[in-house]
Amino acid sequence: MKSLILKEVNRFTVILIYMFGIYIILHGHLSPGGGFAGGTIISAGLILYHMVYPERSNRVLSDDTVMKAICGALLVYGSIKSYHILHGILVTGHHAKEMAPYSIAGGGTLLILNTCVGIIVAGTFFSVTKLFLKGDQ
Amino acid sequence: MFRVASSVILTLILIMVLLTGVTELPQFGLADAPPHNEVMEKYNSESVEDTGSYNVVSAIVLDYRGFDTLIEATVLFCAAIIIIVSLKKPEGESDEELNT
Amino acid sequence: MQNLVINYYDTAAMILFGVGFMTLLLNNNLIKKIIGMNIMDTSIFLFFIVKGYIQGNRAPIYESMADGGAHFINPLPSALMLTGIVVAVSTTAFALALTIRIHDVYGTIELDEVIEKRRTGYERH
Amino acid sequence: MNVIKMFPVVIILLLLLTAFGLPIVKKKKIVFQISLATIFIAFVMSGVTLNYVTQVGDYLLRIGPYDIPWGITFRIGYIEALMAMLFTGVSLMVGWYGVYSIHKDIEEKHIKYYYLLLHILLASLLGIVFTNDLFNGYVFVEATTLSSCGLIIIKNNKSTSKATFKYLIMSVLGSGLLLMGIAFLYAVTGHLNIGEVHRELVKVAAEKHNIVVISLSLLLVGLGVKGAMFPLHTWLPDAHSSAPSTSSALLSSLVLKAPVVFLIKIMYQVYGLDIIHTTPIFTILLILGLAGMILGSIFAINQKEIKRVIAYSTVAQMGYIFFGMGLGTEMGLMVSLFHVFAHALTKAMLFLCVGSMMEQSGYKYKDEFRGIGKEMPVTLGAFTLGALSMVGIPIFPGFISKWYYSIATINAGQYIFLGFILVSSLLNAVYYFPIVINGYFGKDNVKGKIYRAKYKPVKEVLPLAVLAIAMVMISGYSSTLLEYFKFGLNLK
Per the CB < 8 Å rule, is C37 touching D158? Predict the structure, then answer.
């Protein structure tokens, strides 16, 4: 991608795309969306950035870093879910949570879970698309 | 030619069989169809108390049936690993590949 | 017969399934096969998700606590299909990666040419 | 006691969590240690679960805090616990064998990914066996498909890509049909939990007869593709013969079996015997099973590559399993479950033996293995044991299952099928014995040959020995196993 206009415009749009994705992830339990939708949007931003600035993207987000992020997110997600499941089996009759106010933090662990799913989806799509792009250049 | 004819016939038979099933399905959009039962009512009315989520679909995906989502994330991860294994070439080789 | 018209979404889903199935069977091109596979998956998602619709009700998201959930559609099929879509995306991505590999090895993505080249022992590298 | 109750779900979570951690690990040795230790713990835990089941009987285990119609549940009984022991045991042996041989088949840096895929595969297979929820079963089936595709493609070989593509397309078709069958069931019952679906289905079965037949056939075809039922087996020989031999052992012995268990669950727990008898499913299973038994063996005779011979033999053996299910009697089903055990242990051993023979000698075609017994007597000995079991020689599990198949056939009053069993056994002998006899007594290649294959060290052959001992042991304990299966099936 050698076009100067694309490069300059990209600096701003990518930030907007990230913000939109993060908003969707954080509001996953309040409005339509969630980890999957937000993760795909963020991965679209990452891919756009990679197509315009391949060197910088490779330096900041190397394959190794992406893999570590995916594994870390999966581990966090898996441990929280395991705790929920095992705790739920042991304790008969689940405790209803208190009425949560309509806010980002109201969902409790849902926020963390959604964030983890977002990281997993974004990282996966980003690394896969990077491999697909290699053949094209 | 034979291949085309046989595939068309096979597909038509498949569609006919499936449409026979559709004729017995409950009517579209009715409120008293079998799926709209006590399961749905609990999800819709108690999701905020149970999980703290105002988005019922999110509540099901992440909490009521959260185990499914864990496996699904595993599937996604697994696909990523397989693609990396099958497409990623060693660092030195990739440049050579581009030139040819 | 009348039921086919009333349940028009289901009928459409079944026909779409047939279209996908035939695409899968008839085409030699691997990418077209993958497209057929995707059409099939999509038809099943349509078929499943229609089961959750209730006439006159709206999306299952609380706007205020007064909603109470009485006028929501059935959220379960939507949630299940969210899972199904991600699974379908993973398989599609993997199938595309395989196609790239097949192209690397045989230099073509037409299935009959691949079989021909396998038989005659020609390989690109 | 509560803690023991939740062991099945702990096994799955443990396998998944370690799988997520493996890519971060740098050293190969640590990968082996973590992986084998985890699978061993899983094996011990399934043993404890079996012990617990013998004390309290079947039980339902909810996953998470929500009760039956709302959340996901597992159903743990005799069959499930025994299958868990089989699956974890065989994967433990294959993983152990892989420690010494996997680096010959795949690249060094892919080894950790191989064990990661093995973990995911094992977890999802156990999930299919344990689950009591249709959609959960579908997700596990998909996870199995993708991870087994990964186990094939990981060998950087030219033929794997096409074989995997064929496998993937067939599997996706199968899981699509499976999902559509589940959608039909959901549309008329409104539940996904197997017990609830059964309760609702009994009420509506009379007026929705078409849907019952269509959904059952969709599920049958969908799981039949995964389980290599006869006309849908076309992906199997390519996929199993081009994979690394440890993967072939896993694919042949375990991956085909989990869908069969799921199919049995669907037939007997979702539909129930009363509804099933109004459909022609037993006849279909019987005919397809018989066709697989005979034609699979005939195809196997015509193959030249030794791995393809064994892959086609798998088609024939899956035919036995579907045949037993198709008899429609309790006895037939019990023997089929026993044959799942017999075939899993035997076929894992056969593939590992052939794999080690191929990697040591560098040969591929069955004619080239003449005289291999002089170089690798122990490995060929293990192969001989497996071949004897497959053909049906007394004291081996293959014989026991054929014996009980005959009894079940006589009990069902269908004497004509005895002939099919006999013919199929003879056909098995036709393609297994030449390999063994030529291996020991073949003289063609011996003269002036450089023995490329030296003995393997004893520790590398040990997994094979363990599998052989397990194989003989299950024929010794066959009556106990059959009794457990009878408790587990619990048919009225």
Answer: no
